[in-house]
């Protein structure tokens, strides 16, 4: 694979959010209603019908907090954030390694709990022979990881993990060569600071920009992010709020909206916008509504260049 495959293991913001029994029942009821009068005599026909249902009925955006994987031929494992989705990423990695030693490069946007909570359940960290690098721009990065596994918060101290774990401090604006990628970090507006990353390899580029509030009232700051996103093949963007919430009751809460994501990607001529870090109070129907509204907004405000818009879900894979 010459390109970069982006796999989403966790896409929720703030806290993992599971489907409730009532929400599952509602999906089943809506699916049955849509299937009224139809006859499926094979599982393949039923599955084909289910795949054509609205995503909020036939699927789910998932409930794990932030974790994204970058995959390219000949490169070690690269993970972006270690939310609860990191548990699944670790299980999958060990399946692929099949008992062999592995190398993991984990880039942290920031140190809030929803972005580090998966590491105590990241199985490769418990196995000798595995080598884990954890990168970030915060001075407290190692302290944060050790603190969440110290008594009485967790039964296994970080020092008792079997893998070799190294913490690497990065500087913003500096280009690093890591795991086959050129990587640069950028400071973002968020409580306690967060950092976005731009990854480039073989002419393809992926921007990971979560937990960042963009108000667009500071031209210099806005243009700085436009350049950071410039011509990116994929921009993973914090679209936690609707525009109405972002400029009213949730202003200064450190997150952005779907509308701002579309605007910035249009200005930057980015190719593909992925809405990410979904609000835990939003159910699948609400997330799908915001997604469809974002697609429509991009269409009616487009000036020549088209930006594809997707809403991230646990299990989504995109190749750029």
Class per helix and strand makeup: alpha/beta
Distance between the termini: 10 Å
Average of per-residue pLDDT values: 96
The CATH architecture name of the largest domain reads 4-Layer Sandwich
How many domains, as an integer?
Answer: 2
Helical segment count: 10
Name the overall outline: globular
Radius of gyration: 20 Å
For this entry, give a set of tags.
2 domains; Metallo-beta-lactamase, Chain A; 23% strand; 10 helices; seven-stranded mixed beta sheet; alpha/beta; single chain; 320 residues
Could you explain how this protein is built, in words?
- This protein folds into two domains: 5-19 and 60-319, 4-Layer Sandwich (Metallo-beta-lactamase, Chain A); 21-57, no CATH class.
- 30% of the residues lie in helices and 23% in strands.
- It is built from ten helices and 14 strands.
- It has helices spanning 21-34, 43-51, 55-58, 86-97, 113-116, 141-148, 219-229, 243-246, 258-268, 284-301; strands at 5-10, 67-71, 77-80, 103-107, 131-136, 164-169, 176-178, 181-188, 194-201, 204-209, 234-238, 272-276, 308-311, 317-319.
- It has a seven-stranded mixed sheet with strand order 6-5-4-3-2-1-14. It has a seven-stranded mixed sheet with strand order 7-8-9-10-11-12-13.
- A hairpin with a 2-residue loop joins strand 7 (176-178) and strand 8.
- The longest helix has 18 residues, at 284-301.
- The chain starts with a strand and ends with a strand.
Give the arrangement of secondary structure elements.
Elements lengths: L4 E6 L10 H14 L8 H9 L3 H4 L8 E5 L5 E4 L5 H12 L5 E5 L5 H4 L14 E6 L4 H8 L15 E6 L6 E3 L2 E8 L5 E8 L2 E6 L9 H11 L4 E5 L4 H4 L11 H11 L3 E5 L7 H18 L6 E4 L5 E3 L1
Parallel strand pairs: 3-4, 4-5, 5-6, 10-11, 11-12, 12-13
Antiparallel strand pairs: 1-2, 1-14, 2-3, 7-8, 8-9, 9-10
Helix pairs in contact: 7-9, 9-10
